[in-house]
Amino acid sequence: MFNRFTLTLGRRYATARQGSHLVSFISRMSVIGLVISVALLILVMAIMNGFDRELRERILQVMPQGTLYSREGIRDPGAVMAQALQHPEVIAAAPFVSLQGLLAKGKEVAPVGLFGIVPELEVKASGVDQYLTHHRLNELGDNAHAVVLGSTLAKSIGTEVGDRLTLVIPRAGAGRDSPSVWALEVVDILVTGTEIDNNLALMNMSAASKLTAYPGSVSGVRLKLHDLFRAPTTMYEITANLPATVYGRDWTRSHGNLYQAIHMSKKLVGLLLILLIGIAAFNLVTTLIMVVVDKEADIAILRTQGASSADIIGIFLVQGGYIGVTGTFIGVILGVIFSYTVTSAVAGLERLTGFQFLHSDVYPVSYLPSELLLSDVAYIAGAALVLSFIASVYPAWRAARILPAEALRHE
């Protein structure tokens, strides 16, 4: 079926510019449709991979991957940390105090989720120090009035490094107790480019503990884990060896819905775009059938000169394959180029127009991430080639059924 004769003639049919202009036009449109479909699918998959990466490497590097709590606070966090660190999946542990309150600067007020931390332990359990503009996290350990603000939160109240703020913490429970008020000074800004920047603030753990309903206790212990996807099992195993008052929570409770949404979107979009590739590939059916009709006389002459049905099938399979390979190859090249440049291109367009397309209060990140995986490129290219080959089968079979006498009757 595939020999030098069929390969040469099939390639010549695919690249010929003479003959029917309509057939040539439809053939070019088939290639262009395949190019657009393949390039678009590679780009979209790369963007979905980028969101997946940002969730793992940014959001889950700053927010806890696993957390141990006690309803009335943990009085001896050292013992809990030592017990947790015995588990082989735990890389590091750090205590924290969690507060909800209001930050005020003049007339500007914003809600804040505040974490009291121990800097030297926190840097081992999270990557927060990587996203600081001035790298002054250690000041939180010595200064009870120092605070680090998320960039979006700082912008919302119009503050910057060196400004003084007022923190207002409501008293736990109902009653006439006045809220706790604490003076703070901004020592650094946290810029992750994610939703974390919207309301996160960090301060001295001892000072934060004094503002809680259980002074001297910590709210919990955060854990850094080896395998994020074993987090539920790991937390269950850890809490099984701790007092009954201590319970665990993992990142799938706080950000699992986001992760599932990203993966579901990736699968659905991938399916839709694979269908788009299928439509583009099956345009070859129309193209090749028109070629068969246009080349009926040529096919009849080839048959009279000794070409077999297998040779005729091979010619049109080669033609369809040539179109599929050409469209897929160009689409892969363009898709790879777009995937590597889309982040900077969108950022440049935002600077040029002054309009931000992604906001961290709506999307998980404030920019368009991209991560190209070789496995995705191979899967997409393979699917396009297989569909192109399948689409070529029927026209090739139909060409092989042409009877020379019937084709040459009106010539």
Structural class: alpha+beta
Gyration radius, to the nearest Å? Answer: 32 Å
Total number of domains? 2
Basic shape: elongated
Number of strands: 9
Fraction in beta strands: 15-25%
Reading side by side through the largest sheet, how are the strands ordered? 2-3-7-4-6-5
In the predicted model, the low-confidence regions spanning at least 5 consecutive residues are none
Structure description:
The protein is an alpha+beta fold and 411 residues long. It has two domains: 4-57 and 258-408, no CATH class; 64-253, no CATH class. 55% of the residues lie in helices and 18% in strands. It contains 14 helices and nine strands. It has helices at 4-15, 21-62, 77-85, 119-125, 139-142, 151-156, 205-210, 231-239, 251-254, 256-294, 296-304, 309-353, 374-400, 404-408; strands at 66-74, 90-105, 108-117, 146-150, 164-169, 180-190, 200-204, 218-225, 246-250. A six-stranded mixed barrel has the order 2-3-7-4-6-5. Strand 2 and strand 3 (108-117) form a beta hairpin. Helix 12 runs antiparallel to helix 13. The longest helix has 45 residues, at 309-353.
Short descriptors:
alpha+beta, 2 domains, 18% strand, 411 residues, 6-stranded mixed barrel, single chain, 14 helices
Tell me briefly what this model is.
The protein has 411 residues and is α+β, with helices and mostly antiparallel strands.
Strand and helix map with partners:
Blueprint: H1 4-15, H2 21-62, E1 66-74, H3 77-85, E2 90-105, E3 108-117, H4 119-125, H5 139-142, E4 146-150, H6 151-156, E5 164-169, E6 180-190, E7 200-204, H7 205-210, E8 218-225, H8 231-239, E9 246-250, H9 251-254, H10 256-294, H11 296-304, H12 309-353, H13 374-400, H14 404-408
Parallel strand pairs: 3-7, 4-6
Antiparallel strand pairs: 1-8, 1-9, 2-3, 2-5, 2-8, 4-7, 5-6
Helix pairs in contact: 1-12, 2-10, 2-12, 2-13, 10-12, 10-13, 12-13
